[in-house]
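The following record pairs a protein chain with its ligand, pyridoxal-5'-phosphate.
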Amino acid sequence: MNEIPYKVYLSENEIPTAWYNLRSAMVNKPAPLLNPGTHQPMKAEELAPVFCDDLIAQELDNDTEYFPIPEEVLSFYKMYRPSPFVRAYFLEKALDTPAHIYYKFEGNNTSGSHKLNSAIAQAYYAKKQGLKGVTTETGAGQWGTALSMACSYFGLDCKVYMVKVSYEQKPFRREVMRVYGADVTPSPSMSTNIGRKILEEFPGTTGSLGCAISEAVEVAVSTPGYRYVLGSVLNQVLLHQSVIGLEAEAALKKLGVTPDIIIGCAGGGSNLGGLIAPFMRDKIRGKLDCRIVAVEPMSCPSFTRGTYAYDFCDTGMVCPLAKMYTLGSSFIPAPNHAGGLRYHGMSSVLSQLYDDGLMEAVAVPQTEVFKAAELFARVEGTLPAPESSHAIKVAIDEALKCKETGEAKNIVFGLTGTGYFDLVAYEKFHNGTMDDYRPTDEDLAVSLAKLPKID
Ligand SMILES: *Cc1c(COP(=O)(O)O)cnc(C)c1O
């Protein structure tokens, strides 16, 4: 028999009781959010009309190491955490690799992804502040679904602006959100000033996350008792997602295994930022010698082809400026099938770590991703989300490299969600109608030329 079990189960009592703030370990801190008018760092009181107070405090805090997880959030976590940590024996066998492959699976809740980890925290703080409801955007729909669940749990209203292409292609996620009582509007819509403006300029646009964010923010700041919440990119979201990394660290400790390579898909950077949090801390402190790899789609390559600069977080330019690897806020990626990886920018935390050479990034074409997804589904049983499958693809590539060199490396990757709602994408893959769109340098130059000038 194998010396290591297929799954490492932590007990309920081993769910982390505090989130870990990776910024506290960073030597070069992530650049602050800037006021889009004055270009000065945003102060808490300037953020207060948009975000919940406790979340602002978390967003601006680069020093506190641990934030206790509130009791109400912890009891919600107990319904679906600890999440499984799995040794991919069957994948190793199929690849005939000496590498040891492990994954942390975050798809075992109804929303189907890791997004619930932050949604429930954000809904809790909104409720604590006595708010009536929250607004948000959603791309592929996982964040909207997670937030709807969280809002329904705490009795908050939830208004979701859903990128139009997803609204049309993914009616099932939309209906899950409505099961949980959310109000879902396709974006861009005629119900906001910014939506009307974008539709006038780009009639027939399939929408983008940047544009949906602008609409959600506009509604939040103009509706009493509402604030805006975001499912990725922000420091606070990476903080909440650190539960993934802390549990993975505990599981690896139980096994006595030290990771050599940690791999995660990167949309806005929240699952990866959460997964790597304790490992990156150890790497920064020289206690762990481990490669950390972000995987992004070739169609939306923020790290590998973007510029590290201040940019708008949204198309309507109403949000603060964030310094990040970006393709430009006016970049609207061709509709790809990993909707959760279509954001033009990247978390400031991960951007700084990447710029400091502490992380690597690779961009992969979508048909290769689906090939990897299918192999994984066939041998490991779990149907992976297209986003997660970016990480699978690179984990497989790394395991195959080990086969050449004969090295038994320990590879850990984040399996962020399930693919049950992505079967239209799988259908395209099977029918051979999926393409590997790659923006040209000229395409990128157009949106990058519109980066704000900051001195
Ligand atoms: C949203 C999402 C992602 C990408 O978002 P990050 O903030 O980069 O983690 C990845 N996988 C799934 C399943 C998602 O829903």
